[in-house]
Write a structure and sequence with these properties.
Elements (H helix, E strand, L loop, with lengths): L4 E2 L9 H10 L18 H18 L5 E6 L2 H13 L5 E6 L2 H10 L4 E7 L23 E4 L1 E2 L4 E2 L11 E4 L16 E5 L10 E6 L16 H6 L9 H16 L2 H21 L5 E2 L11 E6 L5 H10 L2 E2 L10 E4 L6 H18 L1
Parallel strand pairs: 1-13, 3-4, 3-5, 5-8, 8-9
Antiparallel strand pairs: 2-10, 6-7, 9-10, 11-12, 12-14
Helix pairs in contact: 1-6, 2-6, 3-4, 7-9
Bound molecules: 4'-deoxy-4'-aminopyridoxal-5'-phosphate.
Length: 361
C-alpha cells in the first residue's frame, strides 16, 4: 500500500515504530504466551507495565513530587465534569477562560456544578487569539481558573503560562500535551484525553497537585474521584490496559526523539513550514489566528473559494494525505500535525497545496 500521511485531529496518527512493536508483541507479551490485553491488571506483569508507564510520563514532563498522576477513562469530555466535581472543594464558583469550542464545552459542563465566571473570552474575535492576561478578570473566590491551552478546532495555543496567584490553574492539554516542555509546577491540575499525542482513545490522564485532593463532591462516582483513584494507583476498577501499554510505547518513542525538547524542535519546524506555505500563498489559503497564538498541533486553513474544497480534499486523498477536512465549526481544512507526523508528511502536504494553488489560482 502507498504511504498515507494521517492529518486526523484525533484519534490521530501513532508513531509507526510504536504500532510495529505492538504488532510484534500482540500474541505474546514478554514471553508470557498471551497478549497484554488478556492479562489481569493486578498481575505482576501488567503492574510492572503500569508502573513504568507512569515513571516515563513523569520523567518526560518533569512532573515533580507532590503531584499525582492518574490514568482514567471517560474521555476529555468526561473530564469537563470531573474537574468541578473534584476541584470545587466546597466552593461555589470557578473562573473559565473561553478560547474556543473546547473551552466552551468545559464551561457548559461546569455550569451543572457551580457558578461559572467567564474571566476572559475571545468569542467576539471568533476565537482567533488567546486573550492576554491583562484582559483577564479573575474572581477572588474562584475554586480554580480553567483554561484550554490548545484549542483543537480553532488552532489557538497558549505559549505562556497564566499567573493566577493562589488560585489553582487548571489546563485541558488534550491536544498538545508532550509536544514541548512545560513547567508543571505552575499548574494545580493538567488533564486531557490520550488520543492525540499519547495513544488510543479511551484513556485519559490527570496530573493533580496533592493538596487539591480530598475534597471531591460526595456524589462524585468513585472511579472519577481523583483522591480514591490516586490511593489505588488508578486501579480502583479495571483500567484500559491496552491503551496504557500503548501509551508506554509512545513514551519510549518520545524519549528516543530526544524527549520533549527534541520533539519541540521538530514540531516548530513542521508548523513553520505549513504556516509559511499558507501565508505565502497570496491569499489562496488563509489562517485567521493571531501569529503569536497559532497552534503548532492543529492548523486550520480555508481556501479563498469554498467551491474548491471538495476538489482539494479529493486530490489530497489521492496524494495519500488523509484527514484534512476541517471541523464544521470553522469550515475549510485542518491539518493536525501532532508528534507522530513526520516532517516528510508536512513536506508532502505543502507540495500538494502549492501545486493545487498553481492549478486553481
Ligand atoms: N478537549 C480538547 C482540547 C479536545 O480536543 C477534545 C476532543 N477532540 C476534548 C476535550 C474531548 O475529548 P473526548 O472526545 O475524548 O471526550
Amino acid at each position: 500500500m502507498a504511504r498515507i500521511f494521517n492529518f486526523s485531529a484525533g484519534p490521530a496518527a501513532i508513531p509507526e515504530p510504536v504500532l510495529k512493536q505492538a504488532q510484534a508483541e500482540l500474541l505474546d507479551f514478554n514471553g508470557t504466551g498471551m497478549s497484554v490485553m488478556e492479562m489481569s491488571h493486578r498481575g505482576k506483569v501488567f503492574m510492572a507495565v503500569a508502573e513504568e508507564v507512569e515513571r516515563d510520563f513523569r520523567t518526560l514532563l518533569g512532573i515533580p513530587a507532590g503531584y499525582k498522576v492518574l490514568f482514567l477513562q471517560g474521555g476529555g469530555k468526561g473530564e469537563f465534569s470531573f474537574i468541578p466535581l473534584n476541584l470545587l472543594r466546597g466552593k461555589t464558583c470557578a473562573d473559565y477562560v473561553n478560547t474556543g469550542h473546547w473551552s466552551a464545552g468545559a464551561i457548559k459542563e461546569a455550569g451543572k456544578y457551580c457558578q461559572v465566571h467567564i474571566a476572559a473570552s475571545s468569542e467576539s474575535q471568533k476565537f482567533t487569539r488567546v486573550p492576554p492576561q491583562a484582559e483577564w478578570r479573575l474572581s477572588p473566590d474562584a475554586a480554580y481558573v480553567h483554561t484550554c491551552t490548545n484549542e483543537t478546532i480553532h488552532g489557538v495555543e497558549y505559549f505562556w503560562t497564566p499567573n493566577t496567584g493562589d488560585v489553582p490553574l487548571v489546563a485541558d492539554m488534550s491536544s498538545h500535551i508532550l509536544s514541548r516542555p512545560i513547567d508543571v509546577n505552575r499548574y494545580g491540575c493538567i488533564y486531557g484525553g490520550a488520543q492525540k499525542n499519547i495513544g488510543p482513545s479511551g484513556l485519559t490522564f490527570v496530573i493533580v497537585r496533592e493538596d487539591l485532593l480530598g475534597g471531591a463532591h460526595p456524589l462524585t462516582p468513585s472511579v472519577f474521584d481523583f483522591t480514591q483513584q490516586a490511593a489505588n494507583d488508578s486501579m480502583l476498577n479495571t483500567p484500559p490496559t491496552f491503551a496504557i501499554y500503548l501509551a508506554g510505547l509512545t513514551f519510549k518513542w518520545l524519549q528516543a526523539q530526544g524527549g520533549l525538547a527534541g520533539i519541540e524542535l521538530a514540531n516548530i519546524r513542521k508548523a513553520a513550514l505549513l504556516y509559511r506555505c499558507i501565508d505565502e500563498s497570496g491569499g489562496f489559503y488563509t489562517n485567521p489566528v493571531a501569529r503569536a497564538d497559532r497552534s503548532r498541533m492543529n492548523v486550520p486553513f480555508v481556501l479563498n473559494d469554498d467551491a474548491l474544497n471538495s476538489a482539494f480534499l479529493a486530490g489530497a486523498e489521492e496524494a495519500g494525505l488523509a484527514g484534512l477536512k476541517g471541523h464544521k465549526a470553522v469550515g475549510g481544512m485542518r491539518a493536525s500535525i501532532y508528534n507522530a507526523m513526520p516532517l516528510a508528511g508536512v513536506e508532502a502536504l505543502v507540495d500538494y497545496m502549492k501545486d493545487f494553488a498553481a492549478r486553481n489560482g
